[in-house]
Specification:
disordered N terminus; Bacillus phage protein; alpha+beta; 35% helix; 3-stranded antiparallel β-sheet; single chain; 129 residues
Length: 129
């Protein structure tokens, strides 16, 4: 796949911040579009799989890993600068665009990795709505 990484999705400082609920809702949309059996329940603000188990890749390592794999999200942790980067593609106006997200961490690189994956999935979800 040939594409140029021509956009960066930056954290809070550049006004891209979403609530956890918004992140999960958009990530669930992306997951569903990728063939995962996930539904977001607006009434309770949570997502569930077909067996009615709560699906939350912000808190569950397995959910985050499955989401990254299904959506083709590359995860690049960098311990030297305490940051997790993701790389992924979306289609916009018929063009394939490469994007990145960045998530800083102090001590919990696993939580930062899950959040980076969900932020990337939310961007994918926004692109398909």
């Amino acid at each position: 796949m040939n594409f140029k990484m021509d956009e960066k999705i930056l954290p809070v400082g550049n006004k891209v911040m979403m609530t956890d609920r918004e992140l999960l809702e958009l990530a669930a949309e992306a997951a569903k579009n990728a063939g995962m059996d996930i539904e977001f329940d607006n009434d309770c603000g949570k997502a569930f799989d077909r067996q009615a188990h709560e699906w939350n890749p912000l808190t569950n390592d397995g959910d985050a890993l499955r989401l990254a794999v299904k959506l083709g999200i590359e995860v690049l942790p960098d311990r030297e600068i305490s940051e997790v980067q993701t790389a992924f593609c979306i289609r916009r106006n018929g063009r394939l665009i490469g994007l990145n997200t960045f998530e800083k961490f102090a001590t919990d690189e696993i939580a930062a990795t899950r959040r980076a994956v969900v932020r990337a999935a939310a961007e994918i979800g926004k692109s398909i709505l």
